[in-house]
UniProtKB/TrEMBL annotation, chain A:
It comes from Streptomyces aurantiacus JA 4570. The lineage of its organism: Bacteria, Bacillati, Actinomycetota, Actinomycetes, Kitasatosporales. It comes from the Bacteria. Residues 1-225 form the FAD-binding PCMH-type domain. It holds the Pfam family FAD_binding_5. This is Putative xanthine dehydrogenase YagS FAD-binding subunit.
TrEMBL record, chain B:
PROSITE patterns: 2FE2S_FER_1 (PS00197), 2FE2S_FER_2 (PS51085). Pathway: Alkaloid degradation; nicotine degradation. Pfam families: Fer2, Fer2_2. Gene3D superfamilies: 3.10.20.30, [2Fe-2S]-binding domain (1.10.150.120). It comes from Streptomyces aurantiacus JA 4570. This is Putative xanthine dehydrogenase YagT iron-sulfur-binding subunit. Residues 26-102 form the 2Fe-2S ferredoxin-type domain. Residues 1-26 are annotated as: Disordered.
Length: 334, 182
C-alpha cells in the first residue's frame, strides 16, 4: 500500500473545508467508511496521496422532507438506513436491498454516499494490471474476451462491460431518487438517472461529479406504491455476495389491472437499470403472469451477452416474473 | 505536527491544511479495551496492523486483508467492523474493543470468560481456531443487534465471518446457547 497523508475534517465548517481540500488537489480523495477506498488503495487500483476523512461531518441521519420524501445523509451507514422505521415502512425494497448487501460488519462501516461511489467488482479492474479502460482509458478491456460470467448484459459498450455492483442503488433508481452534492461554490442536485453514466466511449467517467464534489444527501420520494415493494436478489451463494441478478419492484393493482409500477434491475446492467420498457408494457394491462413475462422479455430484448454470461437474460426474466407474482399475491417483502 | 514531504508540492505551514498528518509515522492515540495507548504509525496503517504489529494484540486475525472473511472483526464504538479496512488513525476518540477485552468488559479482571467465549468452548465451535476471535466478536454483535432469533437469522447475520473448517453448525449452537446471557 502506497504511503498517504491524512486530514480529518469535522463540524459544519468541515464540509466546505473537505470540499476545498480535495478540489484543490487531484491526488486527494474523500475517505468515508473506507470499504472501497482502503481496499483499492491496498490493491494499487486507486492511488491518492492524501485522504480527507469526512466521517465526522454532520451529514448523518434520515430526515423527513416537507413533500413526504426522506433525506438520507451521505454519511448515514447502510445498517442505520436499513434499520430506520420510516425506510422499513415506506420503502421496504430499500431496506431489503441494504440488508442483503455485503455483511453486517461492512454495513456498519459503509456510508450511503460511498455506496453510490463504489467501484466495479470486475476482476480485471481490481487486479490493477490487466488492460482496463476504466482504470486506464485506451488500454482496452480484458473482460470482453476474458472471464465474464458476472458481467453486464444491458448498457454495455465495446469498451466496458463491468456490472454496476450496488444493491441499494437499484431501488433508488426505481424511485427516482435525487443525489445532492456540494462543490466549492455551489450546491447541486442530480436525478439519479443522470448520476450513473453508461460506459459508452468513456468508461472511466462513472458519474457527472467534478473532482472534489461531495455527496451530501440522497433524497428519496416515498410514493404510496412503494409500501408494497420488494428486492429479490439471486446470487452464487446465499449471503455475502454480489447479485447475479436482482430486481427491485413496486406494484399497484386495481381491479386486476396494473395501475402503477416501478422496476429496476441489478447485476445485469453497467448502471443500476431502470426497466422502463417493462414498466410501460405493464401499466394499464392485466396483472397476470403472461403479461409479466411479456414485459420482462421487452426489457431484456436488447441484452448483449458473452459466452459466459448468456444465462443472465433468462435468469433476469424469471426473477422479474417471480418478483411481480409475489407482489400480486401478497404484496409482502421477499 | 505539520510535516509535509516536499514532493507533494502543496503549501506548507499554517492555513487550512495545518493539521495534515503523514505520510511518515505520526503519533496516534487509541483507546483499546479501555486503556489509552499511543502508537507511532503511518496514516496508511490499518487498525488491524496497529493492533497486531504495534500493540501485540494478536486476537484479531489477518485472513484476507480485503474485507471478505471477517477474521479481523473488532468493535469500534460498540459496533462490529472489519479492522483490515479501517485505518487506525480514523479511530482516535473512538473506543476499540478486541477479543482480548471481552473477558472482563467491566474491568473486574476476575478472569471469567464472556458467556459467548464460554459457549464457543462448550459447544466445540471451532477446529483450527483461526476465525474464532472474529466469530466471537461478530456473534456478540449479532445478538446485541437482535438478529439471533433462529438459525436462519443467525446464518444470515453471521455471513460476514467465514470458517474454513466449516464449524458453522457448532458456531450457531454456541450463539443460541449464549444469546440470553449476552
Ligand atoms: C467484501 C465486500 C462485499 C461487498 N458486498 C456488497 C454487496 O453485496 N452489495 C453492495 O451494494 N455493496 C457491497 N460492497 C460494497 C460496499 O457497499 C461499498 O464499498 C460501500 O458502500 C462504500 O462506502 P464507504 O463509505 O465505505 O466508501 P469509501 O470506501 O470511503 O469511499 C468510496 C469512494 O467514494 C468516495 N466518497 C465517499 N464518500 C463520498 C461522498 N460523500 N461524496 C463523494 N465521494 C465520496 C471516496 O473518495 C471513494 O473513492 C461490498 C464491499 C466489500 C468490501
Ligand atoms: S482480514 Fe479483514 S475481512 Fe478478512
Ligand atoms: S475454526 Fe478453522 S477457520 Fe474457523
Amino acid at each position: 500500500m502506497r504511503p498517504i497523508s491524512y486530514v480529518r475534517t469535522e463540524g459544519a465548517d468541515g464540509i466546505d473545508r473537505a470540499v476545498g481540500l480535495v478540489t484543490a488537489d487531484p491526488d486527494s480523495h474523500f475517505l468515508a467508511g473506507g470499504t472501497t477506498e482502503v481496499d483499492l488503495l491496498r490493491q494499487h487500483v486507486l492511488a491518492p496521496n492524501r485522504l480527507v476523512d469526512i466521517n465526522r461531518l454532520p451529514l448523518s441521519g434520515v430526515e423527513e422532507l416537507p413533500d413526504g420524501g426522506l433525506r438520507i445523509g451521505a454519511l448515514t451507514r447502510m445498517s442505520e438506513v436499513a434499520a430506520a422505521p420510516a425506510v422499513q415502512e415506506r420503502l421496504p425494497m430499500v431496506a431489503r436491498a441494504l440488508v442483503l448487501g455485503a455483511s453486517a460488519q461492512l454495513r456498519h462501516m459503509a456510508s450511503m454516499g460511498g455506496n453510490m461511489m463504489q467501484k466495479v467488482r470486475c476482476g480485471y479492474y481490481r487486479d490493477g494490471e490487466s488492460p482496463c479502460n476504466k482504470r486506464e482509458p485506451g488500454a482496452g478491456c480484458a473482460a470482453l474476451g476474458g472471464v465474464s460470467r458476472t458481467h453486464a448484459v444491458l448498457g454495455t459498450s465495446e469498451h466496458c462491460i463491468a456490472t454496476h455492483p450496488s444493491d441499494v442503488a437499484v431501488p433508488l433508481v426505481a424511485l427516482d431518487a435525487v443525489i445532492r452534492t456540494r462543490t466549492a461554490d455551489s450546491e447541486r442536485a442530480y436525478a439519479i438517472d443522470e448520476f450513473f453514466l453508461p460506459p459508452g466511449d468513456t468508461p472511466d467517467r462513472e458519474h457527472p461529479l467534478t473532482h472534489g464534489e461531495l455527496i451530501t444527501a440522497i433524497d428519496v420520494p416515498t410514493p404510496p406504491l412503494a409500501r408494497r415493494s420488494l428486492y429479490l436478489k439471486v446470487r452464487d451463494r446465499e449471503s455475502y455476495e454480489f447479485a447475479l441478478v436482482s430486481v427491485a419492484a413496486a406494484l399497484e393493482v386495481r381491479d386486476g389491472k396494473v395501475s402503477g409500477v416501478r422496476i429496476a434491475l441489478g447485476g445485469v446492467g453497467t448502471r443500476p437499470w431502470r426497466a422502463r420498457r417493462a414498466e410501460d408494457a405493464l401499466v394499464g394491462g392485466p396483472a397476470t403472469t403472461a403479461s409479466f413475462d411479456l414485459a420482462a422479455r421487452a426489457e431484456l430484448a436488447e441484452a448483449r451477452t458473452t459466452p459466459m454470461n448468456a444465462f443472465k437474460p433468462e435468469l433476469a426474466r424469471r426473477t422479474l416474473v417471480r418478483a411481480l407474482e409475489t407482489l400480486t399475491r401478497d404484496g409482502s417483502q421477499s | 505536527m505539520t510535516v509535509r514531504t516536499p514532493d507533494t508540492g502543496r503549501a506548507t505551514g499554517t492555513g487550512p491544511e495545518a493539521d495534515e498528518r503523514g505520510p511518515e509515522p505520526v503519533g496516534v492515540r487509541l483507546d483499546v479495551n479501555g486503556v489509552q495507548r499511543h502508537v507511532e504509525i503511518e496514516p496508511r496503517v490499518s487498525l488491524l496492523g496497529a493492533l497486531r504489529d504495534e500493540l501485540q494484540l494478536t486476537g484479531a486475525k489477518r485472513g484476507c486483508d480485503q474485507g471478505t472473511c471477517g477474521a479481523c472483526t473488532v468493535w469500534v464504538d460498540g459496533r462490529r467492523v472489519l479492522a483490515c479496512l479501517t485505518l487506525a488513525i480514523t479511530c482516535e476518540d473512538a473506543e476499540v474493543t478486541t477479543v482480548e477485552g471481552l473477558a472482563t468488559p467491566d474491568g473486574t479482571g476476575d478472569g471469567r470468560l464472556h458467556p459467548m467465549q464460554e459457549e464457543f468452548i462448550r459447544q466445540d465451535a471451532f477446529q483450527c481456531g483461526y476465525c474464532t476471535p472474529g466469530q466471537i466478536m461478530s456473534a456478540v454483535g449479532c445478538v446485541r443487534e437482535g438478529h439471533a432469533g433462529d438459525d436462519g437469522e443467525i446464518k444470515e447475520w453471521m455471513s460476514g465471518n467465514i470458517c474454513r473448517c466449516a464449524a458453522y453448525p457448532h458456531i450457531r449452537a454456541a450463539i443460541r446457547a449464549a444469546r440470553d446471557r449476552v
